[in-house]
Design brief:
With about 280 residues, this protein is of the alpha/beta class. The protein has 13 helices and 10 strands. Among the domains are: about 110 residues, 2-Layer Sandwich (Nucleotidyltransferase, domain 5), CATH 3.30.420; about 80 residues, Transcription Termination Factor Rho, Rna-binding Domain, Chain A, Domain 1. A 5-stranded mixed beta sheet has the order 3-2-1-4-5, sandwiched between helices. A 5-stranded mixed beta sheet has the order 8-7-6-9-10, with helices on both faces. A hairpin with a 3-residue loop joins β6 and β7. α3 packs across α13, α5 packs across α10 and α10 packs across α12. The longest helix has 17 residues. The chain is globular. The two termini are about 15 Å apart.
């Protein structure tokens, strides 16, 4: 029996699927793991806790682990070494989450694969490999189109007093915060990127308001300007997307792509279903 684990690891959680002879046998969720931010010991401890009694570690023959942070050889080694301590009979394949997104979205077809979740990233995919990638420089310097960037656009204009007055009042009321406490949440508490990204829920709830729609449109336009137009052949290749922001605001995303004469391909909220199909084959 061929038993493999496929994992999609994001900032907050890792989605694991156990496949036996191509059929899904189990789904497990554990904490997210980015080797830039967490130690291998934290990772293994979390796995031992989350996987206890759910699967037999020794029965797994291969693991395909796709995660943000697996973009360097050093970080890939951290992941593979941590996993091999638990899954002693498994061959470990660790790749960047962008590689997993390309497989999930495009399989063996040529195109542009994009992630629009908390952060953003993109690549040109030739059907087997990433052949071009505009660098993603994180939420402090980039992540255009992603949740943190979009939330930052909204919060910045509200704090500066240049946002729509009605939206500003609704924003403070919905959060139960004021000007000073929003600043405290950003500068004095941990994970400001997650706080900013969470404000896309407010945008989604009020997307019929022209101001909220303009914020999302502006964020997607910035993603096109900084990322997509850098790829050769962008006007002739489909651009496909995975991530909550792409899924939640797909009509606006399509409008922006149409404006730039870029063809929209597939849009999926999470890449796992595509990864299951690919690895089942």
């Amino acid at each position: 029996m061929a038993m493999i684990l496929v994992a999609d690891s994001g900032a907050t959680k890792t989605h694991w699927v156990l496949l036996e002879n191509g059929a899904v046998q189990n789904e497990i969720y554990s904490k997210g793991f980015n080797p830039y931010y967490y130690s291998a010991d934290d990772f293994t401890s979390s796995l031992l806790e989350e996987f206890f009694k759910k699967i037999s570690f020794n029965d797994i023959s291969a693991i395909y682990f796709y995660a943000a942070g697996c973009s360097s050889k050093a970080n890939v080694n951290i992941v593979t070494n941590a996993l091999s301590k638990i899954f002693v009979n498994a061959t470990i394949f660790a790749h960047h989450d962008l590689y997993g997104a390309a497989i999930a979205l495009l399989g063996n077809e040529r195109g542009i694969a994009c992630i629009l979740g908390t952060g953003s990233n993109s690549c040109l995919w030739d059907g087997q490999n990433i052949i071009h990638n505009v660098p993603s420089v994180g939420y402090l310097l980039g992540d255009e189109g992603g949740g943190t960037y979009t939330g930052k656009l909204l919060v910045r204009e509200i704090l500066l007093g240049i946002a729509d007055k009605e939206i500003s009042e609704l924003f403070y009321e919905s959060l139960g915060l004021n000007f000073s406490s929003v600043l405290d949440r950003i500068y004095k508490e941990p994970n400001p990127n997650q706080f900013l990204s969470q404000q896309t829920r407010f945008l989604r709830d009020h997307i019929d308001h022209p101001y909220c729609r303009e914020i999302v449109t502006r964020s997607f336009n910035d993603f096109v300007d900084v990322q997509l137009i850098k790829y050769p052949g962008v006007k002739s290749l489909p651009a496909s997307f995975t991530g909550s922001i792409a899924a939640n605001f797909s009509p606006i995303l399509k409008e922006v792509l149409d404006y730039h004469n870029i063809k929209m391909g597939k849009v999926i909220k999470e890449p796992m279903q595509g990864l299951i199909s690919y690895h089942s084959r």
